[in-house]
Amino acid sequence: MTRPARYRGIFTATCTPIDATGRVVASVARAHVEAQLASGITGLLPIGGTGEFTALDDAQRIAMLEVTVEAAAGRVPVVASVLHPGLQDTIRAARDYLRAGADSVMIVTPFYSRPTQQGMVDYFRRVSDAVDGDMVLYEIPYRTGVSLLPETVERIVSQTRTVAMKACNPDLHQQMRVAQAVGNRIAILSGEESVFPLHVAMGAVGGMLASSNLLPRAWCQIFSLAERGDLTAAMALHARLQPIIEALYSEPNPGPIKAALRLLDLDHGAVIEPLVPASDACVEQLRQVLKNALDIERGLASTLSPHSP
Questions:
Q1: Using alpha carbons only, what angle is made at residue 197 by residues 32 and 281, rounded to the nearest 5 degrees?
Q2: Which of 11, 175, 178, 289 could pair with 208 in a Cys bridge, judged by C-beta atoms 3.0 to 4.6 Å apart?
Q3: Helix 150-159 vs helix 117-130: crossing angle, to nearest 10
Q4: DSSP conformation letters of 9-39
Q5: Considering the chain, what is the average pLDDT of its residues?
Q6: Domain ranges within the chain, ordered by starting residue
Q7: Beta bridge partners of 135
Q8: Within the chain, how many helices (H) and strands (E) appear?
Q9: Which residues are annotated as catalytic?
Q10: Into which CATH architecture does domain 4-299 fall?
Q11: Is the pTM here over 0.70, yes or no?
Q12: How far is the C-alpha of 63 from the C-alpha of 51, rounded, in Å?
């Protein structure tokens, strides 16, 4: 299997379970990985935005990554997120995460400085040259303030060891152009639950999603339907998940997801400042929509995952 071919299907952007002392709770992380793989998830994305990268310290990030790598045991790719805005911090972290066992590192577009398109090409090339490992591009312009033009993505792919891209640009026309430019060379993975079936129809070969922490089988089914061209059925199932998707993103991620996990007795601890726990109103909204969403999840045909021991 080629490197880009490994990046297919649903990758879960996992939460980081933290106890009151700030320790990563390894037992919770291991159990969650096993449950995800048993439900058909094909990759794991720890210490990203959903994993509270910017709130964790270096030791917490490494601890969460190491327990994820250990639990995955080579069954699926583990992609370590690097959400630093500066070049040297990014290179240092990427090297550390690859040494810790990550299969690749996901590098976000440099934010705050708002570089030009040429500046971003130079940035990703320097990261790739300095790091002995595969790279996943991460574009999320509504958080970073910068967007990668399709021709910029093509230049980056041509000059770096890029194997995949997490695409969180809600501009469907831009996503279509990116797929046309590089879809035959790297794996494009949608990061947008709200338009996921459309991204697959345009060439995405999977997704890196947060709500699959709760609904892994449902998202695997949506992807399967969309991938084989049954967009009507994929959209219908997607519509049934809309209430839970809206609830999970009604407040800053991952507050609502951690609240939902707690409601399911899968406590991952509290979010870290400056985030605050989900409000009472959000928790009540989650209570109202979770049952139906979980009925959908449980009602899907359960087949043995190839990742199960």
A1: 55
A2: 11
A3: 20
A4: EEEEE----B-TTS-B-HHHHHHHHHHHHHT
A5: 95
A6: 4-299
A7: 105, 162
A8: 12, 8
A9: 138, 166
A10: Alpha-Beta Barrel (3.20)
A11: yes
A12: 12
